[in-house]
């Protein structure tokens, strides 16, 4: 079982970034993730190059300046405390971040061709979804989800190729279950998407948290096969394969940020469930959602 797809905290650090995953470093073509930590009064600038990006506060607040506009992101105390606002910045732009109080910020990116306008994404507009029931209950913050099939533009955040969401799994629960995949282009049924998982795990009484992530070969692509113990700051790269479950250890809530992009002309998130485990969905209507969820909801407009 390979470990090249599990990058423990610090393994993907580069320059100012505690995580720096590019298409080149991942060995694929589209998805990127950077995590930037700024001290109080700190600032950082970067060129977007051939990719579109979303600046998402994980902890703390910042301003984002791009193309003569400045977006003030109120952010949040932590990923477990609330939904965050965010800023979208287009390809071929110069971006500057500054944080008066310091913080940690995710830069989720995808190579693209269309140059969309820079925009502010308010926390109040982020759809918060409860998915699954019982021990499969989890919360999904769909801040940059793709528009659902047959939906309208108001049901998703417009990007050219980037798809990004946040998941919170209460301690003891499983998410990304049933295992699913998106490594084939099957029109109307499955998208071909590369995916990055970035984890933060809640501590309990000062004890750092942990969880587990499984990826198993699907018969397509590289035969990705991972069973990893994951901790805060870890990433898992998923070029292909059945991914899930993501298992939160009892007493330690699990957060992960998903970043996806692929070669398809349409920005779709279409998945295929593992045939051995798809039956679990039929049990969900008979169970209540975990009463610990939602962990929080989006603020009022």
Automatic annotation (TrEMBL):
GO biological process terms held by the UniProt record: inositol catabolic process
A Pfam family that the UniProt record links to this protein: KduI
Keywords of this entry: Isomerase
Keyword set includes Secreted: no
GO molecular function: glucuronate isomerase activity
Keyword S-adenosyl-L-methionine applies: no
Protein's name according to its UniProt entry: 5-deoxy-glucuronate isomerase
